[in-house]
Every structure is written in C-alpha cells, then in structure tokens.
Amino acid sequence: DSPPLQRQNGRLQACDPCRIRKVSCDHTLPVCGRCMRQNRRKECNYTTSGSRPRRLARHMSRSSSTAIQATDTDQTVPCTSSSYTPLPSLPRVSNSLTACQQHIRTVTDPGSGYLGSLSHSTVYEEARNRLSTLHSLPVFSPPLSDETKKASYNSSSVLLSSSIRDRWLTVLRSLPRPSSCTIRLLTTPNNSGGWVRVAAHQIIKSLDTIFGDSLGITRTDAQLQKIAEVLTENTLKRLSEDNSDANSWIEGFTNHNLRWESIGLLFIFRKNGLLELTSDGSYEEISLDISRTCLELCIELSRMFSSGSSLLLFLLSRKTIMESGIMGYASLSAWRRHADTVALLTFLGIYTDPQQVTSQPNFCQENRKQLAAFIFLMDQTFVMFTGRPPLLNYRFMFMPLPLDIDDGDFFADEAAVTRSFNGLDTNGWNTHGGIYSVSFIRARTICAFIRAELVEVALSKAANISTTALLDIKSRQILAMKQIPSPLIYNPQESINPKIPAYHILAQLLVQLDHLQNIFILERLLQRQDMLDEGDLLVTSFEMVSLTLTFWSHKDRLIEARNDFEWL
C-alpha cells in the first residue's frame, strides 16, 4: 500500500472529485468514502499539485453506466474510514461509533436528502432541465438498484463487529416472546391514531410467524444473528413513502419486510404499551429502562443501515417525548434527541409544501403532515420550558396542516376516505364532531404558529414591535380559537359528564392551556410597552393555574391519560 499523498503544507491530499467540489475528503486509499458512497470509484484519483489536471474530463460524467458499474477490484476495497485506521490485529475501542465505522462503510445510497432552492445542485438541475427542453430530451436519473446498494455489504462481518453485535443482541434478547405478548395502547390524544396500533400488532404477529422458534425463552446467539441479518437486509431497502392507503405502507415494514424500525416501534411507549404474559397468567409491563435502551439502539441500527424515512422520524420524535418525560425538557439528553429529530425532518424535506394537488387524500402525505406539525409543536413546547431559541423557524415551515381525517379511514376502502374528505369544511376540519389525534395536533399547531411569532419578539435583542402589532397578534389568537371546532373547546360541564370520553377532555384542556399560554406571553409583552395594566395578566395567570388543577381534581376521569399530563 502506498502512503497517503501530502500537500506542501503537510496536510493530506484530497482526491480530485472532492477537491473540485470543495467538500471534505476522508483520504481513504485507494477510494475515498465519499466516492465509494456515490459509486464513483473509477473517478477517485489522488494527484499531486504538480500533475493535477485543471478539470476532470467532462466534469464527472453522470451517466447511468458510470454510476452503476463496479469492478471486482472495487468490491474488495478495504472498508476503512480513515488512512489512520489501526490494523485489525490492534485492539479496538468497543461500544463506540468509531469501532462501528471501521467495519462498515455506507451500505446504502444515502443521497443528499432534500436540497432546497439555494442548494448547489438546483443551479445544475435548472440548467439541465432547460437544455433538455431545447433538445426535446427527457431528463432521467436512473435510481440505484437494491443490488448495487448492497454490493459492499457483508452481513456477517458487519454484524459481528463488537459494538454492533452488542446492540442487536441487547435488542433481540429484550424482545418479549411474540407468542405471549400483546400491545395495550390506551386511547389518548397523543396516540389515538389508528396506524400505530395496527402496525404494532402486525409486527408482533410477523415476529411470531417468521421467527417464533428463535424468540422463545431460550435464545442462542446463532439464532439471533440470523434474525439480525434479515432485519438488516430489509433496512437496507428504501421504505416506500408514496402509498395511498395505510395497509400498503405498513406492509412495507411488517411480515417478511421487518426492519430495525419495526422493532423500535414496539418500544416507543413509556407505559401501557408492550405487555408480556407471565407464568401466573397475568400481563407484565416491559421495564421502562429496557424500552428506553432498546428504542435508542433500534434508532442507531436504523441510522447505520438506512438513509432515513418518515418511520424513523416518528421513532425519533417518540424518543424525544420519552427522554423529556424521564429526564425533563431542560435536560441535555432530551435536547439532543429533539435536535436529532429536527435534523432528520429538515434532511428529508418534510417541512416543505409537497405542492401535490390530488382529488383524494394520500395516507403517506397526510402522515408526513402530521409529523411535521407535531415536531413543530414539540419545538415550541421546548421553547416554553427552557427559554432557548427554537430549532425550527416558523417562517420556513411550509408544510400545510394535515386534514382532519381519522387514521382509521385510511385502513378502510377508498369510499370511506372520500366520504371523510367530502365532509371537511373549508378549513380542513371534520364536521361531525369527531376528535382524533390529528384534530388535537391541528388545534395545538395553530396556537404554536402564533406562539412562534411571540417567541421571536420575546427572545430577539433587536425586536422593535409596536403595541398595535402585539394587539393584532392577540386578536388573531382569539379569532383562531373561535375557528377551532366546538368539540375541542374546553367546557367545564363536560369534565363531569361520564358520557364524554376522557381523552376528549384531555384534548380540550391542553388546547385551552396553549391558548392561555399565548395570551399570557402577550400580556407580558404588552406590559413591556408601558401599556396600562388593567389586571389582564393576573386574570390569565389565575385561569392557567385553575385549569392545571383540573388535571388533579378530575384525575379519576383522566387516569388512563396520566402519562400525558403528569409533567404538569
């Protein structure tokens, strides 16, 4: 092996493609990691400054034949992540991401995620589209096949690396026996959506059918390795994100398509989620520590073997909720998980407007809308608890609100979705008085967007806003509450009505608290403007405290949803 080339200043020489694009190069010989991931092995050359060409021929041809072909020599390139990687005979640091990367090069085509209008690629894309129009030629970029993605993947060597092996062994040994476990998801505004419940039951059934014998009381490492190989192979495949109905989307990560994200879905709930049948005939909850650890490990494994998906984004958002409930919103662990969630949201471009006008709602599209709204709402919740700047700027949240359609309708036939769609009002609310998880998210997100404007004023040093502007925001907040359907508006009489479901009352309480929080912030900002205090701030504070006490005075009615409000 030849030593790595060095520049005159002593630094390692970047390969020609990385140097031209002015991106970081890991200097791996004979092919760097970036060129390996983009299947440009033949073009990855290291040249000295004296013999370096001014330009590569045709500036890195993008033809499909160059992108897909790989020689036998290319497939046997050592998968090192750095020219300073220690020899295999030297001891490695176990349980570290560095140790993982020494055995793994990127096993899928991660792409560049979502690239917006200011990205470097947009200029070339626009020029190519114009040229193709002039020449009447279609623009075509052939997708990489699954076989090409897996060309450098060897399941045995990757999964047997010490740090990765510890991960999947911990997860698979912690799984309850699928033949004797069940999912008990209590109906609350946070998880009353139908797809999570259906998917969780289907995952357990799939595990029992396919791996039942290997997931019994006694489990050998060899049995678990075979399961890990199947899960990893499936995680390498891109998860479909354009399904019109929920059943076909769930089919993509259940049955013989089980992935690491599927396993993580079983550990997303703090309590009242995964239950295992004990010897005395009763069901026992999975330990919170086990759920917390296994969810984290499943997310790590999913990120190693995939480029991200809305399902992984959902897991990250639930992990954030779990960490905030256990460690608190102000904790570093909760803040880091939230940052990871926002990073994947923006990477996938789920904050943008899809601009797809269809005659019928699409399940995957509506699911992405719900995710974007929920994560934005969660971001504003972090701001209110910590006083830190938001990670998501409301000015760049272009994803429209999800339609007020129950997830369960997407599991029915097309006619059910059409009926629900036709029954919406002009603002996207259902007109038959239903309260679904999406109804709850819609109402709170409307308040969150107004709160984001207030946060911008409150946290900005250079904020220069007039009293008139603040009063205008206050008027919009009051008007927004008037436009929210009456079933979501808090009514003290309904809290003592046994016919009203508990999760309806909880949804009403939380929506009303969001409204009062916005009014509270507004009143404080108005006082900074030396506006005459007529006692509005005191009245709002009293209403907030009184409403919060309702959670405890009616906790017998809300006992099933205790996990959702105990942070209060």
Automatic annotation (TrEMBL):
<keyword id="KW-0479">Metal-binding</keyword>
<feature type="region of interest" description="Disordered">
    <location>
        <begin position="45"/>
        <end position="81"/>
    </location>
</feature>
<dbReference type="InterPro" id="IPR050613">
    <property type="entry name" value="Sec_Metabolite_Reg"/>
</dbReference>
<feature type="domain" description="Zn(2)-C6 fungal-type">
    <location>
        <begin position="14"/>
        <end position="46"/>
    </location>
</feature>
<dbReference type="GO" id="GO:0008270">
    <property type="term" value="F:zinc ion binding"/>
</dbReference>
<protein>
    <recommendedName>
        <fullName>Zn(2)-C6 fungal-type domain-containing protein</fullName>
    </recommendedName>
</protein>
<keyword id="KW-0539">Nucleus</keyword>
<feature type="compositionally biased region" description="Basic residues">
    <location>
        <begin position="52"/>
        <end position="61"/>
    </location>
</feature>
<dbReference type="Pfam" id="PF04082">
    <property type="entry name" value="Fungal_trans"/>
</dbReference>
<dbReference type="GO" id="GO:0006351">
    <property type="term" value="P:DNA-templated transcription"/>
</dbReference>
<dbReference type="Pfam" id="PF00172">
    <property type="entry name" value="Zn_clus"/>
</dbReference>
<dbReference type="GO" id="GO:0000981">
    <property type="term" value="F:DNA-binding transcription factor activity, RNA polymerase II-specific"/>
</dbReference>
<dbReference type="InterPro" id="IPR036864">
    <property type="entry name" value="Zn2-C6_fun-type_DNA-bd_sf"/>
</dbReference>
<dbReference type="InterPro" id="IPR007219">
    <property type="entry name" value="XnlR_reg_dom"/>
</dbReference>
<dbReference type="GO" id="GO:0005634">
    <property type="term" value="C:nucleus"/>
</dbReference>
<dbReference type="InterPro" id="IPR001138">
    <property type="entry name" value="Zn2Cys6_DnaBD"/>
</dbReference>
<dbReference type="GO" id="GO:0003677">
    <property type="term" value="F:DNA binding"/>
</dbReference>
<feature type="compositionally biased region" description="Polar residues">
    <location>
        <begin position="62"/>
        <end position="77"/>
    </location>
</feature>
